[in-house]
Amino acid sequence: MINITFPDGAVRQYEPGVTALDIAKSISEGLARKVLAANVNGQVVDATRPILTDSTLQLLTWVDKDGKATMWHSSAHLMAEALEALYPGVKLGYGPSIENGFYYDVDLGDRTISEEDLRKIEAKMVELSKLNSEYIRKDVSKADALAYFTEKGDQYKVETINELADGSISFYTQGGFTDLCRGPHIPNTGFIKSIKLTSIAGAYWRGNEKNKMLTRIYGITFPNQKELDEYLTLIEEAKKRDHRKLGKELELFAFSEKVGLGLPMWLPKGAMLRERLQRFLQEAQIASGYLPVVTPHIGNKNLYVTSGHYEKYGKDSFQPIHTPEEGEEFMLKPMNCPHHCELYKVTPKSYKDLPVRFAEFGTVYRYEQHGELHGLTRVRGFTQDDAHLFCRPDQVKAEFQKVIDLVMYVFNSLSFTDFTAQISLRDKEDRSKYIGSEENWELAEQAIIESAAEKGLNTVVEYGEAAFYGPKLDFMVKDALGRKWQLGTIQVDYNLPERFELEYIGADNQRHRPVMIHRAPFGSLERFIAVLIEHCAGKFPLWLAPTQVKILPISDKSQEYAEKVAELLKNAEIRAEIDDRSEKIGKKIREAELAKIPYMLVLGEKEAADNVVAVRRQSKGDMGTMQIDAFTALINEEVANRKPLE
């Protein structure tokens, strides 16, 4: 008999060769009908895989992240089966699960797929799912795998197999469809009840622009129609909140192909929004002992060779700029940290000088592939709210925790209250992509783990997500629609101080290396503003709103009084605009609502005679009349308290 240990610590004995599905049935038939996969000894596997030795077991259902991922990957295979039935000769690339659903990259030859065709593919998937076909795994030799897909004429699978080691290759078959896949998969297609293919895009094979452009079909599936309907409602709301749509409507930012793809330009209202966010953080930084610095937009190539950025990212960056001086090369700045290391070296430091905290809203440039650019969330030029702290080893934890406090201050002020702190560590196996000693990495990782625990953060650990020079604490924020975004980040770095030979004189009068902490509470202003726009649907908190008050005179007779009110608001540092068009007041109110203006002041002859304003609150309607002084006090109190979104 073998011992199976469950998540609650309970242990049961079973015959060797028992499957997770068998175990679920031994507990209850109802549970067995929900099991999609299993976590055995920390590895997600098919629920039908035999378990031969003592093991830990977690049964995975739809409520588990890995359960959803398994069903969505199986749905990608189901879609591929439907495509082969509808488009004979279609060739298949990759078909993974993603955060919400799945996709498959396919080569249709001369054929194309339209939105209308997606409904036909959905219908075929529903037809195939009802067959309850089992997903059957088979380990195959490399020779047999190559023979199968060569005969089938699927060159993408052949190319993939050629890179795999013999003995590590498996096929999965459901119904009449077989695919190269490591798994895992759900027990059968019957678990896939409700299907929606969501969009079509182009994708280069293996993400390389030199390769053929394939058709990428996105989809999502659910175990029941109710959850699919709720998801589709969420998608419609997301379309309304799309920062690209709202950014245009609210006149915040624009793009121009002549300027360059992925290079946003900020219109006056957007620029003012950026500046207010910068001032907000700058005030908090100054109070926390940060020192402002400014560095150039370019740097000598050797700077990034020293830091290691050129080796790791040089091929994916904008290429070096050649000057008239032979052999001299500069690069658009991909990171601020190498510049800050050089600033640290300008003056000698003693242990009494540390920590040194340099802060800069520095614009950096990275060459993102054309197909990966997306509004403000994926751009080629962006401004980081960057700071680098240089401290003694005994100061690392305290400084790290102070940065956590700063991130919390930013999130709370902007109503980002639902988040997880992701502890991003090195890959457990592959250390080749990291620089620095094992000892320094262990010290850095331990500092992050302990700091997060002592601050009581809700954390998850992700291996392989560290930066090449150090581990990170990444803040994964959920917006109002429940979508996850990676925003703020804090990193501990023992390596760049070594590469730049940074030093301080210790109390023992000897030379020592400082430790470097990288931090960016916003991450980048562009991405942060995009997420903020979608989180609040363009209804910014009053202290951030580009226009706080719209003054709406009912007729030309109220124009003079409107201008007087505007001047009084301006003197009280309230951002106000007058809508002096010859339109009906109802239309002015509707358009101010659509423009997400927090407050509206309706001014007629009566208000002018009484020296008052009729106040409307965005989305809430009439607040009655009040004296101008009372209204300005109301606004300034709300701004001073940085009242969060309601």
UniProtKB/TrEMBL annotation:
It is found in: Cytoplasm. Residues 1-61 form the TGS domain. It is an enzyme of class 6 (ligase). CDD domains: TGS_ThrRS (cd01667), ThrRS_anticodon (cd00860), ThrRS_core (cd00771). It catalyses: tRNA(Thr) + L-threonine + ATP = L-threonyl-tRNA(Thr) + AMP + diphosphate + H(+). GO terms for biological process: threonyl-tRNA aminoacylation. Gene3D superfamilies: 3.10.20.30, 3.30.54.20, Anticodon-binding domain (3.40.50.800), Bira Bifunctional Protein, Domain 2 (3.30.930.10), Threonyl-trna Synthetase, Chain A, domain 2 (3.30.980.10). Zn(2+) binds at C337, H388, H518. GO terms for cellular component: cytoplasm. Its cofactor is Zn(2+). Residues 242-541 form the Aminoacyl-transfer RNA synthetases class-II family profile domain. Its EC number is 6.1.1.3. InterPro entries: aa-tRNA-synt_IIb (IPR002314), aa-tRNA-synth_II (IPR006195), aa-tRNA-synth_II/BPL/LPL (IPR045864), Anticodon-bd (IPR004154), Anticodon-bd_dom_sf (IPR036621), Beta-grasp_dom_sf (IPR012675), TGS (IPR004095), TGS-like (IPR012676). Keywords: Aminoacyl-tRNA synthetase, ATP-binding, Cytoplasm, Ligase, Metal-binding, Nucleotide-binding, Protein biosynthesis, RNA-binding, tRNA-binding, Zinc. One of its GO terms (molecular function) is metal ion binding. Binds 1 zinc ion per subunit. It holds the Pfam family TGS. Homodimer. Belongs to the class-II aminoacyl-tRNA synthetase family. This is Threonine--tRNA ligase. It comes from Chitinophaga eiseniae. The lineage of its organism: Bacteria, Pseudomonadati, Bacteroidota, Chitinophagia, Chitinophagales.
